[in-house]
Please model this.
Amino acid sequence: QVQLVESGGGLVQAGGSLRLSCAASGSTFSINTMGWYRQAPGKQRELVATITKSGSTNPADSVKGRFTISRDNAKNTVYLQMNSLKPEDTAVYYCYIQTVLLSLEYWGQGTQVTVSS
Model:
């Protein structure tokens, strides 16, 4: 089992920045991919960005050049630095991890990001 605790959401004006963090605990030895998804009201959950244990990233086209995903394997923590935020980035952001064995998926509880125009 893996537990995820997110932090860093909040309210920011358009053009501003926020940094999300997600710390994993429990069976962290099995973690491979870490990442972030988001879900806006009335929309499906969508990929924001993922990063593998070796550091390969996969950001969504909508956030390329604005958001940066990184991780600290020693701390079992993944970060999402969000710059040049837009109102359309408003959503609940969910931390995500996938394990090496059995490709199990775990989700955080979600953190609200609101960007005002």
